[in-house]
Amino acid sequence: MAMRPVAGSAPTVADGRFIEELVARAQTEGLQLTGEGGLLRQLTKRFLESALEGGMTDRLGCDRHDVVG
């Protein structure tokens, strides 16, 4: 399955400035970067959920909560 860019979407993961800003903000707010409840774990969880949701949408042809019929 090919990834399709979305117009006006958030910065890409490859955008180093975005990542630096995210890490700096986490440190400023006192959020751990790794470990239980850390930034890395939260990002990984959200990434996987989003990828799985997108895969199901592509496969089924409708969003999760769409009323079919």
Secondary-structure element pattern, one letter each: HH
- Overall spatial form: elongated
- What gap, in angstroms, lies between the N and C termini? 27 Å
Low-pLDDT segments, ≥5 res = none
Number of helices: 2
Largest sheet: none
Mean pLDDT: 79
Beta-strand residue percentage? under 5%
Overview of this protein structure:
This is Transposase. The protein has 69 residues and is an all-alpha fold. The chain has a domain at 22-60. The protein is 51% helix and 0% strand. The chain has two helices and no strands. It starts with 15 loop residues before the first helix and ends in a 9-residue tail after the last helix.
What's the short version?
It comes from Streptomyces virginiae (Streptomyces cinnamonensis). The chain is mostly helical and 69 residues long.
Which helices and strands occur, and which strands form pairs?
Layout: H1 16-28, H2 39-60
Features:
single chain, mainly alpha, 69 residues, 2 helices
